[in-house]
Amino acid sequence: MVTADGRLREVSPGSDPDLFWAVRGGKDNFGIVVGMEIALFPVSRLYGGGLYFPADATADVLHAYAEWSRALPREMASSVLLARNPDLPMVPAPLRGRFVAHVRIAFSGAEGGAELVRPLREIGPAVMDTLRDMPYAEVGTIHHEPTDAPYQAYDRNVLLREIDKDAVDTLLTHAGPDAQPPFIAELRHFGGAYARPPEIPNCVGGRDADFSLFVGAPPALESRERRDRMPADLRPWGTGGMNLNFAGVEDIDPALVRTAYQPGDYLRLTELKAVHDPGNMFRINFNIPPEEDAGARVRP
């Protein structure tokens, strides 16, 4: 990576453990990454796809999903998208113009995927069922989202410790079909391997969350105001944090960025920022400002 002083540096656990820790989770606050060496996981196939339920099943889907997700192997990744599909030719005919609760599944275990999702299939008839064994190269088909046109949206997210009946009811009040929400909302299950401390430490936060709630709204002010009421009402179930991968252009305030990290990690990031980018050159981002006079406390 190239750091603010113009140096091309090789950053690894052996050569610079502090900077290596900061870059993995600190995003582009410490330099420009120009190359990576990445170890891959040997996953050739997975069981995945989607269950698309009609609007009148949304409450049953969310309550069943909250219960189902309590005891899953770490190989199971899942989420539920609540959205009204546009009435456009590129949308599959059964979904055009319809509000659906779209359960998304990616199970990378060796076998047993169909049995694991059986409780979800038993919720009731689905509008579409695309779950299947697939080569990992087709993992991008699971979300079934268009990729040929830009998508303009103002995103927000909140991390949740748990989802109980009251939390689901709150979510339905804002994002269910009866609310006619002017936004999309995705409840994503966390936990699993993400919840474990990494073998090589990094500063990625949010590992104490069981779920993330992502909301994407069109630019209109009224839509964004309605978007923000839902995270506010879900605060009793929140961790107080957010995930920067799902943050939007309105979340660049350093006070908001701070909530994406554990307090001790954020302090260490500001100290390392003071060492590697004291002038805050890399600031057009989710910025971590350098702490003043921190250089003496952190090894360059």
UniProtKB/TrEMBL annotation:
<feature type="domain" description="Berberine/berberine-like">
    <location>
        <begin position="257"/>
        <end position="289"/>
    </location>
</feature>
<keyword id="KW-0274">FAD</keyword>
<dbReference type="InterPro" id="IPR012951">
    <property type="entry name" value="BBE"/>
</dbReference>
<dbReference type="Pfam" id="PF08031">
    <property type="entry name" value="BBE"/>
</dbReference>
<keyword id="KW-0560">Oxidoreductase</keyword>
<dbReference type="InterPro" id="IPR050416">
    <property type="entry name" value="FAD-linked_Oxidoreductase"/>
</dbReference>
<comment type="similarity">
    <text>Belongs to the oxygen-dependent FAD-linked oxidoreductase family.</text>
</comment>
<dbReference type="InterPro" id="IPR016169">
    <property type="entry name" value="FAD-bd_PCMH_sub2"/>
</dbReference>
<protein>
    <recommendedName>
        <fullName>Berberine/berberine-like domain-containing protein</fullName>
    </recommendedName>
</protein>
<keyword id="KW-0285">Flavoprotein</keyword>
<dbReference type="InterPro" id="IPR036318">
    <property type="entry name" value="FAD-bd_PCMH-like_sf"/>
</dbReference>
